[in-house]
Amino acid sequence: MTGWQALRGLVDGELRLPGDPGFAETGSPVNRRFAAVRPAAVLSAAHAGDVALAVEWARTESVPLAVRGGGHSYAGYCVSTGLVLDLRNLAGIRFDPDTGQVTVGGGTPMRALYAALRPYDVTFPLGNSDTVGIGGLTLGGGVTTISRAHGLTCDALVSTDVVLADGTRVTASAREHPDLFWACQGGGGGNFGVNTGFTFRTRPAPAGSTCLALWSWPHAVDVLATMQEIMLTAPDGFSARIGIARSSNGADGGDSAVSVVGHHLGPSAELRELMAPAFAIAAPGRADIEDRDFWAAATYLHHSSAGGAFAVRTRCTPHEIDDAGLTTLVRAVDKWPGSGNPDGAGAALFAWGGAISRVPVADTAFPHRDTRFLLSLDTSWTEADPPETVRANLEWLHALHAATGEFAPDAAYVNFTDPDLEGWQRAYYGPNAGRLAEVKRRYDPDRFFTFPQAV
Ligand SMILES: Cc1cc2nc3c(=O)[nH]c(=O)nc-3n(C[C@H](O)[C@H](O)[C@H](O)COP(=O)(O)OP(=O)(O)OC[C@H]3O[C@@H](n4cnc5c(N)ncnc54)[C@H](O)[C@@H]3O)c2cc1C
């Protein structure tokens, strides 16, 4: 009997080998940059017991194991050439109206969470993509459009069920295994065990308003500068993604856009007032501001992508970027080398702060409590693009990332995982890096859970 047959006999979930139906769908990373990484097998765990058996089996057989939730790791850490443990069948959702807490399976996608919580009109900070998994989002922190008011996804965590490296199952909370619980609040997915379930506290879903505003390219620096000023004094209920982007579409072969996507937990009249200084720079080509209940806002703010391959690099900055820095960003995006991916490339400032900043930095593993803006730099291409295009895009991104070191610190968001980041321990985890390493030594002393940026 081969090792794979033995594993198949142990578990209730489906084990797929290359060529089996569903193999590609369950074992591929979303980011096609890492499409060449082909697993030896994929186990879609049916329940937490399967996860424990798979961990024990992989350990005994010395087979490397990668944990796959929603599969969105920007660095492709949800796959490996060994066994991929697919958690997407661990997707049960149970809401308890008495406690206001919701318990969800470790592979639950955002779409299912929104659908399950809507009838109760309660929520907690959830991402804006249908298919991002709750595991990756929570374990890396989880910053969403309501986070300035309600905190991070990991701040809403009450407890989590974890299969440890030796196959034992524990529940971690503020009272039980508090160090492990602390590490699961922003210490990054895949590091300390396999989280088979999570319990979160919810709050009533807040109604509000949304905004999408677009300006022409010559206004880029002024809009970025003014929006930063607005966000530095904005109420916690207002969050915004301030972006400049270039794509290969358009009649002249290239399209550039300056955009603000905003979510305000207050009426549209207030949102219009908040945005007034930006609208005073120049009339936007488009400005949609509307009242929406929480669920309509979530649908409106939903992120869609052309897919393909992409790379993202980030810097977390505790202050705004000055005009010289903003000019660097705009000039670089203007010179994007191009690719066949309609998602193009760009730079975005996500406004953080508010409730995120009110949690002391040592209370959870997520360290970026003083960040006011997450600067995210991205580019994309397709699998059909020639190697020179891929090279040019990555060189462009690395040069821009290096240039931004002049005005933003070497601090990065682990959930926008950057496989090219040097000094990632410090950049992702700041002052919490040392304690995370201790938790790793205690809960996974042999480093069974490993990948290029494993704690
Ligand atoms: C379209 C899109 C929208 C996004 N929106 C947001 C957003 O609004 N806010 C935000 O903060 N981030 C956002 N992100 C980033 C996202 O949070 C991360 O990419 C996240 O890690 C993805 O989790 P996943 O489970 O989908 O991916 P995976 O690749 O499956 O997992 C990511 C990492 O976590 C590990 N992991 C996953 N689940 C578990 C588990 N249950 N137990 C142990 N380890 C696990 C994996 O091994 C891997 O290392 C977005 C990403 C995309 C692509």
Question: What brief labels describe this structure?
Answer:
455 residues; alpha+beta; Uridine Diphospho-n-acetylenolpyruvylglucosamine Reductase, domain 2; Uridine Diphospho-n-acetylenolpyruvylglucosamine Reductase, domain 3; Vanillyl-alcohol Oxidase, Chain A, domain 3; 3 domains; five-stranded antiparallel sheet; 14 helices; 18 strands; 29% helix; globular; binds flavin-adenine dinucleotide
What does it look like?
The protein is α+β, with helices and mostly antiparallel strands and 455 residues long. It folds into three domains: 3-86, 2-Layer Sandwich (Uridine Diphospho-n-acetylenolpyruvylglucosamine Reductase, domain 2), CATH 3.30.43.10; 93-205, Uridine Diphospho-n-acetylenolpyruvylglucosamine Reductase, domain 3; 208-424, Vanillyl-alcohol Oxidase, Chain A, domain 3 (3-Layer(aba) Sandwich). 29% of the residues lie in helices and 24% in strands. It is built from 14 helices and 18 strands. The strands form four sheets. A seven-stranded antiparallel sheet has the order 15-12-14-13-17-18-16. A five-stranded antiparallel sheet has the order 5-6-10-8-9. A four-stranded mixed sheet has the order 1-2-4-3. The longest helix is centred in the C-terminal third of the chain and has 18 residues, at 387-404. The protein is globular. The structure holds flavin-adenine dinucleotide (FAD).
